[in-house]
Amino acid sequence: MVCGSRRWLGSAAALLGAAAAGIRAGATRPGAGFLHADSDLRKSKLVTQTNMKVELLPALTDNYMYLIIDEETKEAAIVDPVQPQKVVEVVRKHGVKLTTVLTTHHHWDHAGGNEKLVKMESGLRVYGGDSRVGALTQKVSHSTSFQVGSLHVKCLSTPCHTSGHICYYVTKPNSSEPPAVFTGDTLFVAGCGKFFEGTPEEMYKALIEILGRLDPETRVYCGHEYTINNLKFARHVEPNNAAIQQKLAWAKAKYDSGEPTIPSTIAEEFTYNPFMRVREKTVQQHAGETDPIRTMGAIRKEKDNFRVPKD
Ligand SMILES: N[C@@H](CCC(=O)N[C@@H](CS)C(=O)NCC(=O)O)C(=O)O
Ligand SMILES: [Zn+2]
Ligand SMILES: [Zn+2]
Prior knowledge:
Elements: H1 9-20, E1 45-48, E2 52-59, E3 63-70, E4 75-79, H2 84-94, E5 97-102, H3 108-111, H4 114-120, E6 125-128, E7 138-139, E8 145-148, E9 151-157, E10 166-171, E11 180-184, E12 187-188, E13 191-192, H5 200-210, E14 219-222, H6 227-237, H7 242-256, E15 264-265, H8 266-272, H9 281-287, H10 292-304
Parallel strand pairs: 4-5, 5-6, 6-7, 11-14
Antiparallel strand pairs: 1-2, 2-3, 3-4, 8-9, 9-10, 10-11, 12-13, 14-15
Helix pairs in contact: 2-4, 5-10, 6-7
The structure holds glutathione (GSH) and zinc ion (2 copies).
Glutathione (GSH) binds near residues 1, 3, 4, 193 and 229.
GO cellular component, one term: mitochondrial matrix
GO molecular function, one term: metal ion binding
Family: Belongs to the metallo-beta-lactamase superfamily. Glyoxalase II family.
């Protein structure tokens, strides 16, 4: 399966068919024989703060789109709207004004809905860090900032998964509530994206020096529901890390009830995510390295070939 390619649509369609035929995927999970094949069987979730709401919208097999609402002005942004029809429906449900598309990277499973969405909703500003992003109107780079209503958005350039990958850091000025970061395929809960267009050094910079230095309470909203598989790899790297065991048990329970395992926080990621823990002796010893960047390269290579166990 190539990330962002249309090739895997075939398998997604086949799985959707199986779900439609009445095979409830809810009792199973990755590595347990079946998949949550249908995003309609995965529940959405609304994270409500005084100033900002984030609605998690399951898309395709395991992607997420995110609707961000500024409570003060009722202006909204959508992150990676691969399924535009669902976006339009949820915008209508909330009665908000959608003005902004935040595209994390050009892969089809993230940017593939942009062209259709701009036809359905006129006047959208489409942000992204890569000319390969469809319907792009605002090309951004590191530290580019703008507003969505009263919310402040700062672009963080995190090349590696793709060379033009952007994470979006969203804050409400003068608020005591935690910020949010939309990390696409750079940082996942307990994992990171494949290094399709970058190096271990770049991912180190992205995870440790950029995302790792955000407010530790920042909520992490990532591009895919990969948490269980990621934690099984994390457990393989650090078998004695209790934070991994606990998060895995929690994630399995969430998955079985069709609920998202998102968001996490930056502080939490440092406790169980092996790619955020490359400075730890335990992770370095597993990799047979003493340098964090070489450790990053080694564990990414290992995960590329990791066979996820059933339990
Ligand atoms: N291993 C993925 C396979 C799909 C895949 O390659 N996904 C891309 C993003 S579209 C990726 O970077 N995955 C990170 C990883 O496999 O660790 C899974 O858990 O389902
Ligand atoms: Zn991708
Ligand atoms: Zn992806």
